[in-house]
Amino acid sequence: MDSVYRLTHDAFVGAGLTPATKSGQLIHFPELDNMPKTKVIVAEVNGRIVGTNSITFDGPAGLHTDKFFPEETQSIRDEGRNLASSWRVAVDPSFRNQLKVIRSIFKQTFAVADAYNLECCLFTFYEKHEKIYQKLINARSLCKKSYSNEFYTDKTQVLMRVDIEDFLGTAWQT
């Protein structure tokens, strides 16, 4: 996990999304990291982790979206669908322009989701990345909120949703 935390730090600092830390690590939701319902996905090139994403399946500990979008997450949860959230999407700055890395990460993420019979996945992305993920993974934007915490200062997050029936049959499945 140290490599994932360092990669996340470097990617987010490099994108201007968060200030650098002395530890050189960015640990978003440590309470979710060691849960059996969380799967950490990595993309490697020559044994080096160059991309990561995490997916947490809903359970007693909740989802990362409960922290920033609690009412919206609960409303979706009330639909009764098998729900998860995907978070900590990061790509090494030197690989940022290589679409194959992010595609590999999401292909792996949705393979894990399929293995767990996922029906709906929630994401939070920075507003500046909203259109990219609408195109890349057929994500639908639900709402936006700006907030500040120990990692971010006045960054607008977009709650996005991907329903498995909207994902199936896309180019991702090939």
From TrEMBL:
Top-level taxonomy: Bacteria, Pseudomonadati, Pseudomonadota, Gammaproteobacteria, Alteromonadales
Molecular functions per Gene Ontology: transferase activity
InterPro entries: Acyl_CoA_acyltransferase (IPR016181), FeeM_cat (IPR054597)
Domain N-acyl amino acid synthase FeeM catalytic core per the UniProt entry, residue ranges: 4-163
Keywords: Transferase
Organism of this sequence: Corallincola holothuriorum
UniProt name for this protein: N-acetyltransferase
Record has Transferase as a keyword: yes
